[in-house]
Amino acid sequence: MSIRIGILGYGNLGRGVECAIKHNPDMELVAVFTRRDPKDVTILTETAAVCRTEEAKDWKDKIDVLILCGGSATDLPVQTPEYASMFNVVDSFDTHARIPEHFANVDAAAKSAGKVGIISVGWDPGMFSLNRMYANAVLTEGCDYTFWGKGVSQGHSDAVRRIKGVKDAKQYTIPVESALESVRKGENPKLTTREKHTRECFVVLEEGADAARVEEEIKTMPNYFSDYDTTVHFISEEELKRDHSGIPHGGFVLRSGKTGWNNENSHLIEYSLKLDSNPEFTSCVIVAYARAAYRMAAEGQTGCRTVFDVAPAYLSAMSPEELRASML
Ligand SMILES: NC(=O)C1=CN([C@@H]2O[C@H](COP(=O)(O)OP(=O)(O)OC[C@H]3O[C@@H](n4cnc5c(N)ncnc54)[C@H](OP(=O)(O)O)[C@@H]3O)[C@@H](O)[C@H]2O)C=CC1
Ligand SMILES: N[C@@H](C[C@H]1CC(C(=O)O)=NO1)C(=O)O
Prior knowledge:
Elements (H helix, E strand, L loop, with lengths): L2 E6 L3 H11 L4 E8 L14 E4 L12 E4 L7 H9 L3 E4 L7 H15 L2 E3 L8 H12 L3 E7 L2 E2 L1 H8 L4 E10 L1 H8 L8 H4 E9 L5 H9 L9 E6 L2 H7 L5 E11 L5 E11 L2 H21 L4 E3 L14 H7 L2
Parallel strand pairs: 1-2, 1-4, 2-3, 4-5, 5-6, 6-14, 10-11
Antiparallel strand pairs: 7-12, 8-9, 9-10, 12-13
The structure holds NADPH dihydro-nicotinamide-adenine-dinucleotide phosphate and the ligand N[C@@H](C[C@H]1CC(C(=O)O)=NO1)C(=O)O.
EC number: 1.4.1.16
GO molecular function: diaminopimelate dehydrogenase activity; nucleotide binding
Subunit structure: Homodimer.
């Protein structure tokens, strides 16, 4: 029997999840829920329904896992705990500083409903978090580095779009090449947040919006921009569509470490991603964790989990026996 999936929130990530489900034969999309008028939202899966978010509660027995594709800045802090009280859920919450608070809220809701909620799934947080953890567990003496881009951060782009007066926006994260080069050379530099990346925003304003106020709100936004040197460009909707239509991204997790009785040997662990489509790749990670949520719930587990709490075998469509055989 297929794992019945619902999508709540139909933006870049929602469309990516719909596409990822198509590539997972053990899953089927049964419904998409949106805050907009369903007549204004066109999906590609002919067998799935499009409903208002208010109707989701009527689908509790028809959906095994609800994937929450809203924005981290303002949607997921409210939506994930709300829907964890009705469904097994997975989200991509990526406001790193607020993950502990989000975990506690989702854990309370999921436990009281007897559901599983896996949060902060994707590549960062997500695959990069796992690789930072593995590298630190293995090389206990060392230095960690994470670099992103040059690419489009969906979280930062979403956060800019939420500012009053902004009609649309894209945010590029740009690594400071000299910093990356120093890490690659094994110089183990001590780098501040500001010394590792810069951020560049391309913003389309609503008619009559105050550009200076919008720029100030972006540059001072805690958790997203306040610790970075940020450049803001105001452009037309046509220019945004013409010059900034893609959502590529990627990055590196590196850990340089020492071993030996006198730390005489050096090692470098590196995990990298090069993504044509940030949302489509993120969605593939999310859909694998939807499979895990389904299986963990079927075992009677309840409460909130992060990627650190999910055994890898839960993610794979292969059985544990097939996985063991695949290691030969
Ligand atoms: N952990 C990770 O590695 C990653 C996490 N993310 C997270 O995913 C989040 C979502 O990103 P993304 O999908 O790009 O955000 P979008 O802005 O595309 O979508 C966010 C929400 O906005 C609404 N929306 C979308 N399009 C429109 C529109 N045309 N008009 C009105 N409302 C619209 C949708 O809700 P509705 O349908 O209800 O209107 C949607 O759920 C990001 O905030 C980020 O935090 C993203 C990438 C990686
Ligand atoms: N969560 C990020 C995924 C990566 C990209 C990123 C950044 O560019 O700051 N941080 O984490 C996203 O929304 O794209």
